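Weekly structure sync, notes
Attendees: PL (lead), two postdocs, one rotation student
Agenda item 3: pending single-chain targets
PL asked that the sequence for the first pending target be pasted directly into the notes so everyone works from the same version. It is reproduced below exactly as submitted, 282 residues in total.
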Amino acid sequence: MTAGPHVTEAAGVTTHGEAAAPAETRAGYDVDAGIAALWQQFADNPDQASRDRLVLHYAPLVKYVAGRVGTGLPTHIDVGDLVQSGIFGLVDAIEKFDPERGLRFETYAMQRIRGAILDDLRSQDWVPRAVRSKAKEAERAMERLGARLHRTPTDAELAAELGIGLDDLRDFYGQLQLTSVVALEDLVAAGKDSGSLVDTLPDDDAVDPVAVLVDQDNRRQLAQAIAQLTERDKIVVSLYYFESLTLAEIGKVLGVTESRVSQLHTRAVMRLRAKLVEQTGT
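Predicted structure, written out during the meeting:
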């Protein structure tokens, strides 16, 4: 009786003398075969479901390209926004990719993704290209002069380096102001270890805890002062300030004239003021 094939677990080798493919390699073959089948399915029937599966598979490319493009950009530009723009480039690459040209899809897609991100950044830039070009030229001139002079160059020196007059340079500064836009968050945090815009802008609707405590203390003192009034004075104060009755209406409740209520009210206020002054010790 012949023995069946014996498979050793170590190194994945069979006793037939054939080396078994490592698990990682087999998995790689499975992935490649699955993507190839998905591309063929999309080519035969370019439906939404197939395209979405391809987008999901190649989405890490977008994150990679966005991270590369985002390096060196101003801090107020969110890499998440770059990724969102890059997704449109990926979708466009999938829809326009032609395998017959022999180009790897990853290479083709990265170009399209980068182009989509840059196009979106340009569309958000309100500064003319000529001004941007002048700004870069001025920056390079400043660097050259700084390296030669070992100090910050003067306006006259910079103008001479750029080959323009001093008045032209000052007009040039006015144009360059358009390029000097920074995030408000960066200005707030300048010179500080940390800082947030939320910490600096007042919220008109926010409750001031100090004001709340002061109000609570005032109410407590007022309640204590009212408790020491005579019964009639308490009624006048309660109806006038808490029930919002007029002096005439209070007179009807108490059965006295309006002028008498006015006198009672004045007396009650004077007594309250005296009690409050006594409580605060002022």
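Discussion points:
- The radius of gyration is 40 Å.
- Residues 48-70 form the longest helix (23 residues).
Action: rotation student to compare against the earlier draft before next sync.
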